[in-house]
Amino acid sequence: VVLHGTDTLAYTASALSFMLQDLAKPVIVTGSQIPLLEQRSDAMENLLGSLIIASHFDIPEVTVFFRSKLLRGNRCWKHGSKDLNAFWSENYDELACVNINIEVRWDRIRPPVQAPGLRLVK
Question: Which residues 6+ apart lie within 8 Å of 75 measured at CB?
Answer without folding.
Answer: 89, 91, 92
